[in-house]
Amino acid sequence: VSRLNCACLAQDTKSVADVVVWSTLFPVLQDETSLPSELQALRTWFQRMTLSEACRKAADSVLMPKALLEFKSYLQKQPPPCLAMERVTSNEPEEEEGSERALTEEEITAAADAWARGAEALPKPWQPQKPVLPVEGMRNVLITSALPYVNNVPHLGNIIGCVLSADTFARYCRLRNWNTLYVCGTDEYGTATETKAVEEGLTPQEICDKYNAIHTDIYHWFNISFDYFGRTTTPYQTTIAQDIFQRLLARGFLLQDTVEQLHYEEARGDQCDKCGKLINAVELKNPQCKLCRGVPVVKPTQHLFLDLPKLEKQLEPWLEQSWATGDWTANARYITRSWIRDGLKPRCITRDLKWGTPVPLDGFRDKVFYVWFDAPIGYLSITANYTDQWERWWKNPQQVELYNFMAKDNVPFHSVIFPCSLLGADDNYTLVNHLIATEYLNYENGKFSKSRGVGVFGDMAKDTGIPADIWRFYLLYLRPEGQDSAFSWSDLMIKNNSELLNNLGNFINRAGMFVCKFFGGTVPNMVLTLDDKRLLARVTLELRQYHQLLEKVRIRDALRCILSISRHGNQYIQVNEPWKRIKGDEKDRQRAGTVTGVAVNMAFLPAGISAIQGQLCIPSDCFVLSHDFTCTLPPGHRVGTVSPLFQKLENDQIETLRKRFGGGQAKQTPPTPATPITPGDPQLIQELSEEVAKQGNYVRQLKANKAEKAQIDTEVAKLLELKRQLALAEGKSPDVPVPKGKQKK
């Protein structure tokens, strides 16, 4: 502050310090009356800076309200910042930050005491009545995963982004004795269903019936533990959606407006198939029917809109409260803030279609609700088809915690549009407490594509000969929690053979086999040494870290804790060599028994694998997870027949599958534009500039995460092609630098 008596902050002439501080303070101090009189020196300095020519130009072009909106729009298109405290994620396990910390005497003693208390100290597993309903005094958890479009067969990215992630968390909740209901179903109304029906020569209902059965079979094979898997084409959907609509209408949250729309007998759709962005069809440069390629004409039509600006006053305080008390993933918060920051606009909720929930209002009875107004209401109607007491879940925010699972492209509809609909309806609806969104899972070096035969889709996974548990493990291992990740056949083989087979599976099998081979299938007596107690304490720390992570729905990192426990177990067995000690004297045989007994109890911890439960004959009363590692299988407990849990994946097998599913396409050349590039087109230049920036960021991320060279080369080639197109659009020479390693010698 004393420097303010001088002309500038750091020296007698303006410096970068003055510019940075001035630009930071400008939004707050542009109204100088906000400065108290005792800060006269600050006011004088600020006025001097503001009146300088460079600062005036900056204020006019960037910081003043009109330009600020444009600046916000630009910032919105940039990738979210990577906070210094956040760890960059990849397909690989996080590196150890250093050696394991030393255990305290208190931790060792507490772990030994918990072990000694045994299974009797565990709470009894909660057995909810059917149907599952909220219970007073219990933690009632309602879990949904984004409703999959009925006309699409889900690929591996869809499965991990929604149903498998939600399933893993639901299983955890049940093991914690939380009263849990997990519902999902197919989203069956809308444009895509009508189009698919025409393509296949079926009615929309026949298409829905066909693909609902496909989805059901896929999720059953993947062992997804829905309490109920339903669909949106039900009477309850109509009743509940129309009730919410009527309540919004009565409270003045709906608008009527004229929209210019493309009219053609077979023309359907107003959403980009590539990115899912909502667009007005009249904005398309060359609109044409997807089916017959005919050119539609523009006609005005009346539609109803949800008045989001009017609902914003209710939305923002609810969001702040939900963010403060719930667990929202970073991308969910970022995307939601972006929508709020850019200002909400009225959203059209009706469409000129036949297949959908009818609009119950005169003048609009020939229309249906737009799918993104209608589809999230499917959570409610699906629950209503499960139990006629559905309102005990969905109109009970005081007792129910709601978790929504989805990929990031679904976030705005669950964090803004759907909550606004329920807030406006004003009927004590349960709103989302925890919004869990993943990034995208890619396939090898590209995207999943059913039409091009690229990637593994749900109906194909079971034909690979690879069991569902291996698929579940690998998808959870590379779950895109912090950034996009990529499925890789070679990585699948490596992770299966090293982590699932040689680490986890090997440990569980060895522990069980020692009981059978050396002790007649009965858990032996155990006399713990200090080293054993240290192991108990170490496992307890891993177990508690596992709980902390899963309570925050960091599923991928929690899986690392399980693998770490099995690594501790393998090391424990290797150091103590029970197969040798069993042949020694009484002391050695006793030591072999202790090591075997402790190890087989550690093997019980990954309780989510049903085969372990069966082989070790674990009592049903033990199907509950606590924060302590206890002796669940005491001396005298008899195990069953122990056999290997997982299978090795061979290189020849993987290479065959890679070719079958179109992998290894890293050497594809970037696509050339379908239409010639016209130099000087400002809109095209802007679009290409944004694509270049986006692709450049992606390449930098790949390099930072040490991705495979083939993948980096592919993405660099795409970047260079985009730069070439941008140069052509700007009327410059299309020559671009040759990637390193490709230069002619």
TrEMBL record:
Gene3D superfamilies recorded: 1.20.1050.10, HUPs, Isoleucyl-tRNA Synthetase, Domain 1, Methionyl-tRNA synthetase, Zn-domain, S15/NS1, RNA-binding
CDD domains linked: Anticodon_Ia_Met (cd07957), MetRS_core (cd00814), MetRS_RNA (cd00939)
Coiled-coil portions: 685-725
Disordered as annotated region, ranges: 661-681
Subcellular location: Cytoplasm
Annotated WHEP-TRS domain residues: 684-740
Annotated GO MF terms: ATP binding; methionine-tRNA ligase activity
PROSITE patterns associated with the record: AA_TRNA_LIGASE_I, WHEP_TRS_1, WHEP_TRS_2
UniProt-listed Enzyme Commission number(s): 6.1.1.10
SUPFAM superfamilies named among the record's database cross-references: Anticodon-binding domain of a subclass of class I aminoacyl-tRNA synthetases (SSF47323), Methionyl-tRNA synthetase (MetRS), Zn-domain (SSF57770), Nucleotidylyl transferase (SSF52374), S15/NS1 RNA-binding domain (SSF47060)
UniProtKB keywords: Aminoacyl-tRNA synthetase, ATP-binding, Coiled coil, Ligase, Nucleotide-binding, Protein biosynthesis
Catalytic reactions of this protein: tRNA(Met) + L-methionine + ATP = L-methionyl-tRNA(Met) + AMP + diphosphate
Keyword Repeat: no
GO cellular component: aminoacyl-tRNA synthetase multienzyme complex; cytosol
Top-level EC class: ligase
A Pfam family reported for this protein in Swiss-Prot or TrEMBL: WHEP-TRS
Family: Belongs to the class-I aminoacyl-tRNA synthetase family.
PANTHER family: METHIONINE--TRNA LIGASE, METHIONINE--TRNA LIGASE, CYTOPLASMIC
Protein name: Methionine--tRNA ligase, cytoplasmic
Protein species of origin: Antrostomus carolinensis
Highest classification ranks of the organism: Eukaryota, Metazoa, Chordata, Craniata, Vertebrata
